[in-house]
Amino acid sequence: MKFQNLRIIHRGKFLTRYDLCYETENGRSKQYEIISRNPSINSFEELHSGSADAVVMIIHDETGEKLLLNREYRMAVGEWVYNFPAGLIDKGEICSEAAVRELREETGLRLERISEIWKESYSAVGFSNEKTVVVTGVASGEIRPSDSDMEEIQARWFTRAELSTLLQNEMFASRTQAYCAIWCRK
How many percent of the chain have pLDDT more than 70? Predict the structure, then answer.
């Protein structure tokens, strides 16, 4: 594919919709729709440059025998979905700071230890250039409701046996589903 140009279709409060124009190997024009958290992409390089937009947290309890998941009402699909705690990285914040803040805001838990910070990756590469950083670690404390009255989040610790059943019966975000399925087989 050879990039030709792009144009802004709509700017929303948090997302901007773009049309990207490419030329295929056989010379045909292809238009592709994307959304981005960047409201002012002006070049091909800006499609994939820049820092991560959000942080995703894979959190275990102190024993390593339980995994933390959020059951959250996701407006885009109109239903409850299981997902890892996650959130946007605020301007001037580094991913580890965002992880501490988001975990506390969504679950009330304290991030006791960061085990790993993964290389950034794309959240939904089929329609967005949003990048996330995965932070793995250990948390403690008592789970509390989300600080935000604009989100409906129910956090809970799960054992492998509980997750195995949940995976067969409930809706998951794909990254969360993949990790949970592998974790349950250990």
Answer: 100
